[in-house]
Amino acid sequence: MTDLPEVVARYFAAHDQRDTEAALRSFASDAAVKDDGHEYHGSDEIRDWLSRTSVEFTYTRTLKDAQQIARDRWLITNHLEGNFPGGVVDLRYRVALTDDDLISELEIAP
Fold this sequence. Notes:
Elements: H1 6-16, H2 20-24, E1 27-35, E2 38-41, H3 42-56, E3 59-70, E4 73-82, E5 88-97, E6 103-109
Parallel strand pairs: 1-6
Antiparallel strand pairs: 1-2, 3-4, 4-5, 5-6
């Protein structure tokens, strides 16, 4: 397992603490997020997504794996347990970074 890029670690830490604004600062202003069959583009839509996902369910997140698959792309697997449907899931986070070390793309899928 490779160490996470600092911006990704910062995003996960802020999201775990339900700090929407801190998590949003990890994204480029024109970033895109794909999660649960929906797409979110730009800061306003991503802020709305972050604020909803941070309060919808309570869960713990455990990092299982992190692989750098290209210079600016990562595949990260987290294990989640909580009060969401099913209660347990391993999620894959495909992350693309900008040259400024911000998240430009995030795709979350089982």
